[in-house]
Amino acid sequence: MHLQVNYFDLGLHLGDEIQMFLDAIQELNAQVNVYGFEAHPALADRVRNRYKNLSNVNIYNKAISNNPDKNGMVKLYIANANRMEGNSIYSTKHNVEPNNFVESEAIKLSEWIADNVKDY
């Protein structure tokens, strides 16, 4: 029996959880696909560069939301002091600055999986 594992990471920050997952699963004889989503473009680029030599790790600069606006965009509110850890699409989150945001393309995860992950 061949084992296939699809790992989804939502909100990557620096991508450390991806590495923890890859380290933990390496002893399995499995085909592994990693799908990482990061709404902040600079962080998405950083993580994409970190894993650029692994063809099974796919990084997307997209926010996950059930309520994107009519253009498919959301505001990503930046964490206090621009730490980049804890950014949120919710302006009411306690650690974000409501006037400090970037816009990001938003997707509904279930629809994205149906369109992009075959045999899921």
Fold and architecture overview:
- With 120 residues, the protein is of the alpha/beta class.
- It has a 3-stranded parallel beta sheet.
- Helix content is 23%, strand content 34%.
- It has 3 helices and 6 strands; from the N terminus they run E-H-E-H-E-E-E-E-H.
- The model has no long low-confidence stretch (mean pLDDT 91).
- The two termini are 17 Å apart.
Main traits of this protein?
single chain, 120 residues, globular
Low-pLDDT parts are none
Helix content: 10-25%
Instruction: Compute the CA-based radius of gyration.
Output: 15 Å
Our count of helices gives: 3
Strand content: 25-35%
How far is it from the N-terminal to the C-terminal residue, by CA? 17 Å
Order of helices and strands: EHEHEEEEH
Structural class: alpha/beta
Main sheet specs: 3 strands, parallel
Q: Widest sheet: strand order? A: 1-2-3
Shape: globular
Topology:
Layout lengths: L2 E8 L5 H10 L4 E8 L3 H10 L6 E4 L2 E2 L8 E7 L16 E12 L1 H8 L4
Parallel strand pairs: 1-2, 2-3, 4-6
Antiparallel strand pairs: 5-6
In short:
The protein has 120 residues and is α/β, with parallel strands linked by helices. Helices cover 23% and strands 34% of the residues.
